[in-house]
Structure formats: structure tokens, C-alpha cells
């Protein structure tokens, strides 16, 4: 095994970025729906409701994306407990992002899940005993 769980870190980080971008895209859609509220007329309450729902999706997507990125940074450390805790954070919040905020175009969920699993199965390098002295 490698010294650091690099693949787990990279996949989790990219997944967290996708989840964050997905949340921000919901913010853009919510802004558009909110700005159209006055121009639509008879369906203004529905547009306002849609804007509110998209705002909630945005907030959850941004929060989950930031937590997945924090978990990815924890995975990049070499302490086994930090890697394990970071992997668990990444897996849990990747799954929650799929359920509550679209999972970062689903690709963020998949990358976060794979990165979290790779972080969980990573084993730190074992200490090798020093070589015995040679007789000369």
C-alpha cells in the first residue's frame, strides 16, 4: 500500500467540488425563478415556491460539498484515525447529497462514494524492521 491514500483524496476532493458546484447551480436557478416572479403574473406563487425549494437545495448542496471537501482533506493526512473519520464523513455526506441536493450532478456522489471507500480500505504502511548488521 502507499504512504498516503492519494486516490481516495483526489476522488473525494473532486466529488466534493462537484457537489458544491451542483449546489451553486441550484442557487442560479433559484435566482432566475425568483427574478421571474413579477413577470410571470398568475403563476407567481408557484415560481416563488420553486425558488424557495431551489434555495434549500442550494444551501444543502453547498454545506454537503464543503463537508465532503473537509473529509477529503482529512483523508490526505497519514494518521489512520484521521483517514478513517474523513472517509466516513465523505461517504455519509455524499449519500446525503444524492438524497437531498442532487448529488452534484450524480457524478459528485459517485466520486465521493468511491473515494470514501478507498479511504476506508487504505492501510498505513507497516514499519519494516531495520536490516540486520552484516558481518564483514
How would you describe this structure to a colleague?
By secondary structure, this protein is mostly helical. The chain has helices at residues 6-35, 37-40, 44-75, 80-101, 107-121. It has one domain (6-121). It is rod-shaped. The chain starts with 5 loop residues before the first helix and ends in a 15-residue tail after the last helix. The mean pLDDT is 87.
Keywords:
136 residues, mainly alpha, rod-shaped
Q: Please estimate the helix content.
A: over 70%
> Would you report the number of β strands?
0
Please tell me what the overall shape is: rod-shaped
Could you describe the largest sheet, including whether it forms a barrel? none
Q: Estimate the strand proportion.
A: under 5%
Q: How many H/I helical runs?
A: 5
What is the N-to-C order of secondary-structure elements (H for helix, E for strand)? Answer: HHHHH
- Termini separation comes to 34 Å
- As a whole number of angstroms, the C-alpha radius of gyration is 21 Å
Unreliable spans: none
Average pLDDT confidence is: 87
What class would the helix/strand composition place it in?
mainly alpha
SSE layout and pairing:
Blueprint: H1 6-35, H2 37-40, H3 44-75, H4 80-101, H5 107-121
Helix pairs in contact: 1-3, 1-4, 1-5, 3-4, 4-5
Question: What's this entry about, in short?
Answer:
By secondary structure, the protein is mostly helical.
Amino acid at each position: 500500500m502507499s504512504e498516503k491514500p492519494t486516490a481516495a483524496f483526489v476522488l473525494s476532493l473532486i466529488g466534493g467540488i462537484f457537489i458544491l458546484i451542483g449546489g451553486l447551480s441550484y442557487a442560479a436557478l433559484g435566482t432566475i425563478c425568483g427574478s421571474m416572479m413579477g413577470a410571470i403574473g398568475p403563476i407567481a406563487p408557484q415560481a416563488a415556491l420553486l425558488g424557495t425549494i431551489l434555495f434549500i437545495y442550494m444551501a444543502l448542496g453547498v454545506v454537503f460539498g464543503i463537508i465532503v471537501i473537509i473529509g477529503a482533506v482529512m483523508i490526505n493526512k497519514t494518521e489512520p484515525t484521521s483517514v478513517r473519520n474523513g472517509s466516513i464523513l465523505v461517504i455519509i455526506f455524499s449519500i446525503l447529497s444524492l438524497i437531498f441536493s442532487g448529488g452534484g450532478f450524480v457524478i459528485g456522489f459517485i466520486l465521493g462514494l468511491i473515494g470514501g471507500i478507498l479511504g476506508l480500505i487504505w492501510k498505513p504502511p507497516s514499519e519494516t524492521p531495520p536490516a540486520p548488521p552484516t558481518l564483514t
